[in-house]
Write a structure and sequence with these properties.
Length: 364
């Protein structure tokens, strides 16, 4: 970090954005007293609760119940406070039937749900949140966002790091944009997000390096996505073929691996998803395997516009192996058959169908 200086008032919700490696997580660790700054200082008035690495402090041999008390103690909650919130935490995590089971037997989704539930039910004056919305399934991600929204609108001060620009827009009043450890700009959320999106758009058809992107808990440990390439560097056009190659490596034997990628609006609404398991394109992969998988789309139905890219891989039990949300912004250009009247800022999908002409009208 270098020359990053800002003030956050009581009750403000401040977003922190920037590319991977910009210094966002480092800043939050300094504010959470996890990392000491080599120079400068941070003045904080109030109790700080941090959601930096969901699940830190969970012991695999202990039950879910025991881990709630252990994890809560690490996060600064008193035993009486936990007892009061215990049922609420368990209900939020949706693990009632398994609360007395050792967490080593939990699926990765159950583990993450319980860890987030404990952290989200703190009541600090200041809540510091790193990218935690990329955990669990889509329904639970929405639930997490709603819980963070409750905290944000409950009068507490929130510092929120996310690549989800829709979440940043909806939750934050002010945004700080970091790049290579320096502050680019600080200002109203909508203004800063718009500037950020304009400058982070990748060249159409670019390759996206995923190897060093920070992951949420559990992702990238058994299988790691290395990069994703589009059209071998050629531009992406609406109504034309799209070729996508995902390169990866495995750290352990993994059964029935499936890959997928999706395009979302900058408000976080998914408009198109392409998954290999929809056509039973799954494969068991051995430890130490470095390979790639290719998807060919005969006709890209995305309307011209700019989209955020999500890419992931999962095992046969649908457990996440790796997932990187909002890793890039890509532009779909008009194709030769694209009518100018359908080009909209909102994007979306145009779906082809089989049409049949008739000389006479047919009525039901």
């Amino acid at each position: 970090m270098n020359d990053v200086s800002f003030d956050v008032k009581r009750g403000e919700v401040v977003g922190i954005i920037g590319r991977n490696g910009a210094g966002k997580s480092t800043l939050l660790k300094i504010l959470s007293r996890i990392t000491k700054p080599t120079k400068g200082h941070a003045k904080i008035h109030g109790r700080v609760g941090s959601l930096l690495e969901v699940g830190t402090g969970f012991h695999p041999e202990l039950t879910g119940r025991e881990n709630i008390y252990l994890n809560a103690a690490i996060l600064g909650m008193r035993k009486a406070e936990v007892a009061k919130k215990f049922d609420e935490i368990v209900a939020f995590a949706e693990v009632e039937k398994f609360i007395d089971t050792p967490v080593k037997r939990y699926s990765s989704g159950m583990y993450v749900r319980l860890a987030f539930a404990v952290a989200a039910h703190l009541e600090p004056e200041i809540l510091v949140i790193d990218e935690v919305l990329a955990v669990g399934d889509a329904a639970f991600q929405k639930k997490c966002l709603g819980k963070i929204g409750e905290v944000a609108h409950g009068g507490r001060t929130v510092l929120f790091v996310s690549h989800n620009m829709g979440a940043i827009r909806s939750l934050c009043t002010e945004v700080i944009w970091l790049d290579e450890g320096k502050m680019v700009i600080e200002g109203r959320a909508s203004d800063v997000v718009d500037q950020y999106l304009r400058t982070t758009l990748l060249g159409s058809g670019s390759s996206v390096d995923l190897s060093n992107v920070q992951r949420s808990l559990g992702n990238g440990e058994r299988l790691r996505l290395l990069n994703i390439e589009f059209n071998s560097g050629r531009p992406i056009h609406h109504g034309e073929p799209l070729a996508v190659r995902i390169n990866f490596e495995t750290m352990v034997d993994v059964p029935n691996v499936a890959f997928g990628f999706g395009f979302s609006t900058f408000e976080g609404v998914r408009v198109m998803t392409i998954d290999s398991d929809l056509v039973e394109a799954q494969r068991a992969l051995p430890k130490g395997h470095v390979g790639s998988v290719r998807a060919d789309v005969s006709l890209l139905q995305l309307q011209p516009g700019r989209y955020a890219l999500d890419v992931g891989a999962r095992a046969g039990d649908h457990g996440s192996l790796d997932y990187v949300a909002g890793c890039a912004q890509l532009e779909v250009l008009p194709g030769p058959t694209t009518p100018s009247s359908i080009i909209r800022d909102t994007g979306g999908v145009r779906v082809p169908a089989n049409w049949a002409w008739s000389e006479t009208p047919a009525f039901a």
